[in-house]
Amino acid sequence: MLIELHRDHDHRCLMFAADTRDDNAVQSNQFLIVDGDTGAIIDPGGNLAYNDLYVGMQQQFAPHRLSAIIASHADPDIIASLDRWMTATSAQVYISEIWERFIPHFCKPGKTAGRVIGIPDAGMHIAVGASQLVALPAHFMHSEGNFQFWDPASGILFSGDLAVSVGVDPRVTITELGPHIAHMAGFHRRYMVSGKVLKFWARMVRPLPIRMIVPQHGAPLAGAAVREFIDWASDLDCGIDLLAQADYRIPA
């Protein structure tokens, strides 16, 4: 399922929403950024998503022109298809430097040699054609080494596992957060590590002119829902905030 998020001159942002309901797997989104004749793919997904993504991409952009395969973190639904992308393209792989030596486990021996660029904890700029993506620190949301990717050319924040919603149609953009919170709250309380981290994140992103927040699962946020989500997340108790000694007991 192809969804165009942005088109302006030579810059496009496309979302491929993989439907894995028949596979009893989590729904996931993959993203293609095209600038001129160069492209980057963000969170290419696992093997369940690969075939549809590759075929869909061919209709929009030649995969051999990808310059970057970018991963927000190292979960299987993010990058388990890496072995196939290493064969199909000559792109470099960008991932947190703490996962740099783990992702070869997704590939046959030697396939990632010389092709992995570790993103430092502070983040970095990643060139895509004449534009740049900015890797923003998102550590412990929910992974130890985690990044989001800000695209200034489109105003889109690709937010990984933050702003995820469950059981919604990814084709429907959310512009009012209130009714949508029921699809987000349980996930965020379980998968985000702490409210402290979310407060740091909110302070970081508030100055950005964000037009859309697009997560790796579920529906994009736009309009008023963007600021409403930042405010909601910055005041959320989650993860270790909710734990007590009763959660750490030897099973009866």
Automatic annotation (TrEMBL):
What's one Pfam family the UniProt record gives for this protein?
Answer: ODP
GO function terms (MF aspect): hydrolase activity
What are the record keywords, sorted?
Hydrolase
Q: Does the keyword Protease apply?
A: no
- Give a yes or no for keyword Membrane in this entry: no
List, for all copies, the residue spans of the domain called Metallo-beta-lactamase.
27-217
InterPro entries associated with the record = Metallo-B-lactamas (IPR001279), ODP_dom (IPR045761), RibonucZ/Hydroxyglut_hydro (IPR036866)
| PANTHER family documented for this protein | HYDROLASE, METALLO-BETA-LACTAMASE SUPERFAMILY, METALLO-BETA-LACTAMASE DOMAIN-CONTAINING PROTEIN
* Name of the protein in question: Putative hydrolase
